[in-house]
Input
Amino acid sequence: MKDHTPHHSWLRGGSMATQGEKRIISTNEVIGWILQSGIILSTALIISGLLLLPTHSGGFSSQRLLNFPLTLTAIQDGLVHLRPQALIALGLIVLIATPVFRVTASIVSFALEKDRTYVIITMIVLAILLFSIFYLGGNTPAHMPAGVKNLHYSLLRVILIFLGSIAAGLIGALVGLGGGVLIIPMLTLLFGFPISYAIGASVISVIATSSGAAIAYLHDHITNMRVGMFLELGTTLGAITGAFVAGYLSGNILSVVFGAILIVSIMPSIFQMGEEHPQNVKNDKLAQWLSLNGSYPDQHLGKEISYKVTRTPWGLVMMYVAGAVSGLLGIGSGTFKVLALDTIMRLPIKVSTTTSNFMIGVTAAASAGIYFSRGDILPLVAAPVALGILIGARGGARILEKMSNKSLRIVFIIVIAISAIEMILRGLGINGF
Output
């Protein structure tokens, strides 16, 4: 049987690279450049807006918090007058657009490789993204949740949200969850924001985590781009479904659902605690046809690890569920993605977390247009979240390279368990920890 294992360019022992290997190097560099450019431009716009804010009436006040542009026309008008909220909103839009440009670049990459199958797959993913952002997002009416008049906002709160987001980004990048599992509890439990606003900020945090950490993961060749791109077919469709359903459920129901989903998701990781790498895995027919198997350099073990992929159709089904949960709760649903990749498809945990991280930005972007148009993304909340997440995500990506798979599972389980209990208690109206 022909070996479909990709000949990766990171096998540093060889003295020469083949044409295919050079192309992989170029692809990773181009996608990494796109992500980095998007992050730099977005960060510059957000910081400029935050610096301008104190020079305008209202400053860091609760009144200013809810006064922001919802449409591109309103943002354009605000930019003409150098309004801080418009600059920040534009920075957030650039961040949302970054995964879309990454998908577009992937189409070009697969075309250069003359891989028609993945060109078609990636074009379908791009079409879903554009349909969601421009059509569904453009036809979603704005709303205002209950309790907004009691919101408190100040420079101190901005700083605290920023610091908390750094920790969320670091942990999110480590376990492939996107940071949303900590952002939502932080904003609702500690700062008293309605869960719809917390979910809106979390959507931004997921994109920031994915973009920030993916740069390092692509450079170190741990992410399986083919697995990620194929499974994004399921996650993007699911994200659109979940974002619509979210508009019809109460905050308490969302909190309980969120917590219950997290608890269920950690059970397989507990049973696989002692496993360093999956054993006796064989490619299924779909994985063989799509060439999903691969290898990665494990710095902790000091060697190249090869792996195969199984139960691919079930993984795709789980990714639709993951996308729906992402759109519903704004968390990136990295828990379900890691669950599908690690437990169902049997990829190594490091490949699972990094590939999950690679995918969550695109999944979140599929629902971001709907949340933005609905008014759930408050620029003055999402801005410090995005900046903190970006810093934390890059740090988490560096730490992961040197961790053992067992240690990674322990961190994953602890973070999820604490967040799940807190959210369930809040949804039931019970004071937490």
